[in-house]
Amino acid sequence: MPPRNFRLLRVGQTLAIDVVHSRRMADQRLLRGFDNSKSRRKPGRGRRPKLAAATTAVAALAGLSACGSLSADYQAPSAVRLGGPSGFSNSAVQTSEVRDITTWWALFSDPTLVSLVDQTVAGNVDLARAAIRWKEAREALAQSRAEAAPRLDLAASGGATAARQPPAGSSYSAALDASWTLDLFGGLRREREASAASLEAAGFDEASVLTAVVAEVARNYVDARSLESRIAIARKSLQTQDDDVQIAQWRAQAGLVSSLDVEKARAQRAQTSAALPDLIKAAASARHRIAVLTGRAPTALNAFLGSSSEIPQAPWGLAIGAPLDALQRRPDVRRAERNLASATARIGVAEAARYPSLTLTGTVSSSAAALEDLGSAVTGTVLAEVAQTLLDGGRLESVVRQRKDEADDAYLAYQASVLGALEDIENAQAQADAARERAEALRVELGASQAATLLARGQYRSGLTDFQTLLDAERTLLGAQDGLATARGDEAKAMIQLYLALGGGWTPASASAERRGRIG
Asked: I need a labelling partner for 137 at 20 to 30 A (CA). Which of 130, 390, 481, 499 fits?
C-alpha cells in the first residue's frame, strides 16, 4: 500500500529528475555558490534559476527523510495463526512438577556427563563454526550501520620538480572529502533492521547447534554406559554358564545324564560369548563419538570415561507448559522467526531503491608551494547530488517482487518450524511414555526370570528336572537382563529427546564471549 504522502513523494521525484538533467549545467554555479574562497561576492550575485531549482529540490527531498519507510513495520505472526494448539495431548505431563531444563544434563546426577558437556561446549568444532557465522553476521550489521553514517576521506600529496627553465620547485596539496547519503525512504533503516534480524538469527543458529551437540553427547554417553552394562551382564552370564558346563560334565561322568547335556551347555555358552564382540565394538564407537564431539581424537577420552555399568537416569515429572512457552524455548523456531523478520525488512530496502537518493558531499582543499603555507589558502565546496533511475527494464520492480516471494517463503519456513517443533514435542512425549512402560514391564519380567532360574538350577542339581529346563530358564534370564539394560538406556535417551524437543540446553548467554574470543 502506498503511504499517505505519496503525492509529495512524486513531487520530490519530479524535482530530482530536473536536477539530474540539469546537473551538468549547474555544477559550476553550485561550485561558485558554495565556494568559501568566493565569500566576498556581494549578496545575490551568482544566483541562477537552475541553482534555485536545485536548492529547492534538495530542500524538498531532505524534508522527505522524515517520511519513514515505504513498507509496513514487521509484526511476528502469532502461534495460533501458524496452527499452534492451546495445549498438548498429554495433560498428565503438563500438570507434573515444573523443572528447569536449561541445564537438563545435570538432572541425571552424573558428574562425568556434566564434565563431558562442559568439554563439548568448550571444544566442539561445529559450535566454533557457528560462533564464526555469528561474528560474520555481526560485521554485516556494523557495515549496514556505517552506510547511514557520514563518510570522511583525507588525501595529501607533495612533490618537487626540477627543470632547466622555470618554473621549478616543490608543491603540496591536501584535501578532506565528506559525503552523506540521506535515508529519504527508509531503505538504509530497513537494511539495518534486516542485518540486525540476521544477527539474531545467527545467534539462535548457534544455540541450535549447542542444543544438538549437547544432546548427541548425552545420547552417546547413555549408549556407552548401556552397552557396558550389557557387556557386564554377558560376562557374568558366561561365568554362570561355565558352572553349568562343569555340572553337566560331572553328572555325565557319574552316568546320571548323557553327554547331550554337556554339548547343550557348551552351545549355550558359545552363543553368549559370540554376542560380546559386537557389544564391545558398539561401546567403543560411542566412546569415540563422544571424544570427537568434545574436539579431541577418538581415543582421547578412554581413560577419562573408564568402565561403568551404571546407566544414568533422569527424574520423571516434567511439566512442559503451554505450546507458546515451549516454542519460545526452541532456538530453531526463534531463528526461523528472525529470518522472516529479515526477509520482510528487505522488502523495504527494495522498495526504497525505486525512489530518488540524495547525497550531500563536501570538500575542503588547499595547495601551496611551501609546506608551511599549506593552510593559508583553503577552499571549500558543498554539493548536493540527487539520483533517480529512469529506465531499467523493470529490474527494480522485479527485485521488489522477488523480495516479497522470499518473505513468503520465510513465512512458510517459520510455520513449518513451528509445526515441526510441536510434532517433536508430541512424539517425544509418546516415546518417553512408551520407554517408561517397557522398562517397568521388563523389571517385572526380570524378577520372575531370576526366581525361575533359581528354582530350575536347584531342581536340576537334585535330579528333579532335565537340563533343557535349566537352559531355557537361564536363556530367559539373560534376555530379561539384557532387555532391561537396553530399556533403561532407551528410557534415558527418550528423556534427552524430550528435553531437546522442549528447547532445553541453552540461554541467551550460552553463546559465551569466551568461546567467541577463542576463535578470534
From this structure: 499
Cell 529479515 identifies what position?
A: 342
The answer to whether the beta carbons of residues 414 and 334 sit under 8 Å apart is no
Quote the DSSP letter at residue 104: G
| Confidence at 9, pLDDT banded by 50, 70, 90 | very low
Query: Which cell is 440 given?
Result: 517397568
Rounded to 5°, the CA angle 94-331-403 comes to 125
pTM, two decimals, is 0.74
DSSP string of 212-263, one letter each residue: HHHHHHHHHHHHHHHHHHHHHHHHHHHHHHHHHHHHHHHHHHTTSS-HHHHH
Residue-wise pLDDT tens digits, 352-379: 888 888 888 888 777 776 666 666 677 7
Task: Write out the three cell numbers for 213.
Answer: 551437540
Task: Tell me which residue has cell 564434565.
Answer: 115
Q: Which fold does the domain 68-148+183-354+389-518 belong to in CATH?
A: Outer membrane efflux proteins (OEP) (1.20.1600)
Give the pairing type, strands 169-182 and 357-368.
Answer: antiparallel
Given a contact cutoff of 8 angstroms between Cβ atoms, the answer to whether 478 and 236 are in contact is: no
- H helices, E strands: number in the chain: 13, 4
Question: 175 Cβ partners below 8 Å, 6+ apart?
Answer: 154, 155, 156, 363, 364, 365, 366
* Nearest in space to 194 (alpha carbons), one of 183, 185, 186: 186
Pairing of strands 378-387, 357-368: antiparallel
- Cα torsion at 201, 202, 207, 212 (round to 10°)? 100
Q: CA nearest 61: which of 192, 191, 181, 188? A: 181
Q: In what order do the strands lie in the sheet with 378-387?
A: 151-161, 169-182, 357-368, 378-387
Supply 294's cell numbers.
568434545
Bond preceding residue 2 cis, omega within 30 of 0: no
Annotated domain spans of the chain: 68-148+183-354+389-518
